[in-house]
Structures are given as structure tokens and as C-alpha cells.
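For this section, I looked closely at a protein sequence along with its fold in C-alpha cell form, which I now present.
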Amino acid sequence: MGSGAEAMKTQWIPGAVSATFKKMPLTAEDVIALLAECGLKAVEWSENVHVQPDDPQGAALLRQKTEAAGLRVAAYGSYFRLGENEQPLPAFERSLRSAKALGAPLIRVWAGTRASAEVDDELFRRLAEEARLIAEIAAREQIKVAFEWHKNTLTDTNESAERLLREANHPNLYCLWQPTVALTPRERVRGIGRMGGRLLNFHVYSWPDGKRGPLNAAEWQYYLDAAADLGGVHCALLEFVRDDTAEQFRSDAQTLLNLLESGEDHG
């Protein structure tokens, strides 16, 4: 292939989601040290775990510590959910203030509180409108809004996620991606292709038979191959470590690095 095709190849930055460490438990400083030790380059800081909503001072300090260690802030992992608040905009703005101080390029939100099959057209419309409103507020701060890709929300199927983005109809709305157990591997890969440029970071883990396992290189090679033509720069963030141990995290981190380095070698 020519240089133009190569330029479009997806570039991956390896990292982790800080909620991964809440049961170990590790402080933010411990997380930074472990990621740096493992050769990872990015972190999604999780709300209510290592950074709090409406705490710009604490978020700014965490940003300094993160960048001083040579890591980038990949995202702010909020727990704001569509349809959960009587006054959604003030609730969202509390998370957004911390995301801005953290220097996060995107804020993760949740697409509701119910499975898509349980949401009628009227509720779907209201949730899409709420999504549009928060996307507009975040756009003013130059922060992208990305939905968690998760069961029991409106992103539990490829079709529902597409519908949500279509009905919300705002250019600042995106999705994260992960191999949710609600879909088969083939359905997961189909979603990667269908969402295309609306996909941002990937959450990386393996759950054989619905239980946490070590990161499966063959499984993730399948997903990364499907995402090879997304283009741009994306973060591949480890999450859900088997038995919540630092030892397993170190092993998974090496597997991830090997995968991404192999992909570069074959670019």
C-alpha cells in the first residue's frame, strides 16, 4: 500500500481505566506508578474512584501528576447517566468541570438506565434530546461526549447505539467500545465497522463465559484487525483484571503492548 493508505491506519496508545484498581485498592499515585512501570502511556481517570465531580482543584492536581509521569489523560470516566436526573444539565456540569480541569479530551457518560428493548419511543426521544443538550455544553469546552458501550443501556446493541446517535443528531457525540458480553464476537466486530468514526477509545478486557480472564491475544487481534481502518489516534485502555491483582494487570499490559507492537510491525 502507498503512504496515503498507511497514514489512515489506526494508531493505538496503550493505557488503563483507573476504576480497574478500586478493589486492589490503589491510590491515584499508585496507579500512575504502575502504569509507568508497565510501559503504558494513558489513563482514563474514573469519577468517584480517583477524581470527584465538581472538584476542579483536585482534578487539576491529578492532571499535573499524570503528565509529570509522562502519561496522557485519555478521558474522564463520569457516572452521569441519561434520564437519571430531574435536572440533568446541572448534574452533568458538575462532572464537566472536573473533566475540563483534568485536561480530558472526552467525558464518558452512560446511555440511560435500561436495556434498549425496555425503552419505548417517547423515552428514547427524551434521552436522545438530553444527549444532544449535554453534547452542546461539552462542545463549548472542546470536550467530546462518549457513551459507554454497555448492556442495560441504549448502547447494548449496535442498532440502538446507531439510533441514539442519529436521533440526538449532534457532531459532538461519540461512543467508546468494549467487548460487551451482550453481543457475540461477530456482532461486536460488526459494530466496530458500523460505528466507524463515531468510535473513540476501546476498553480492553477478556471475559470468557462471562467471567474475568487474562487478556486473550487472539480475541483482541480479531477486534484490532476490525478497527485497523478507523484511522486517527485512539487509546486502548485495560480494564477488569482477573482477581483484581497487580500481577495479572502487569501480564495483561504486556499482552496488550505485544499486540499493538505487532500491529505496528505489520503496518
